[in-house]
Amino acid sequence: MDGLGAIVLCGGRSSRMGADKATLRLPDGRTMLQAVLGSIGRVVSSGRMVCVAAEGQELGALPRDVAVAHDREPQRGPLEGFAAGLAALPAGVDRTLLLACDTPLLTARFCRLLVKHLSAEHDAVVPVIEGCEHPLTAAYRTGVREQVEAMLAADRLRARDLLAELRVRAITADEARAVDPSLGSLRSCNTPEELSALLETAAKS
């Protein structure tokens, strides 16, 4: 898709998982990050994907056309990673997916759904399921960088707070389930137990 990029956040703490989530191996041999990139690569053109890591974090083997950026300041949360990713996107990208590395069931169809609804009237497209917003599985116009930087400068670090500053098009549960019945694209995992449950769900679907 012309003008579309993708940012994958990889620098979050993985203390409860006991291992770096980005490089954690799935049963098929891929890392969680590789699984996410595989789905994104079916939607985003070559050379327009950026992985954002913490300083010194190793991400393992990545496709050659995937750029790696780093948080400018440590432990500042996903908005810090979003800002670093926006700065690293190549010229010509005016829309971007924002995703996390710990959503291995993300599908290309779900990515396309987000992008499809990012019209000129909206700054962001965000799933809202049972009242819960999912700002880290969403699509944004790259022009939101101004608001992101302003929030960081004010030490407002919650990703959900960003949405209050933007024109948001919500994706409903029905719209999401139409392309991903199990809503696996929205399921992240922070512990080995959550990952096992996630993979069990995938095996049954």
What does this structure look like?
It is a single chain. With 205 residues, this protein is an alpha/beta fold. The chain has a single domain (4-204), classed as Spore Coat Polysaccharide Biosynthesis Protein SpsA, Chain A, CATH 3.90.550.10. The protein is 31% helix and 19% strand. It is built from seven helices and eight strands, in the order βαββαβαβββααβαα. Strands 1, 2, 3, 4, 5, 6, 7 and 8 form an eight-stranded mixed β-sheet that branches. The protein starts with a strand and ends with a helix.
Rg, Å, rounded: 16 Å
Major sheet, described briefly?
8 strands, mixed
CATH superfamily, by name, is: Spore Coat Polysaccharide Biosynthesis Protein SpsA, Chain A
State the helical fraction.
Answer: 25-40%
Q: Which structural category do the helix and sheet elements fall into? A: alpha/beta
Task: Give the overall average pLDDT.
Answer: 93
What is the subunit arrangement here?
A: single chain
| CATH architecture call | Alpha-Beta Complex
How many domains would you count in the coordinates?
A: 1
H and E order: EHEEHEHEEEHHEHH
- Strand fraction: 15-25%
**Counting H and I runs of at least 4 residues, what is the number of helices?**
7
Which CATH class? Alpha Beta
Cα separation of the termini: 29 Å
Shape: globular
Q: Which segments are poorly predicted (pLDDT under 50) over 5 or more consecutive residues?
A: none
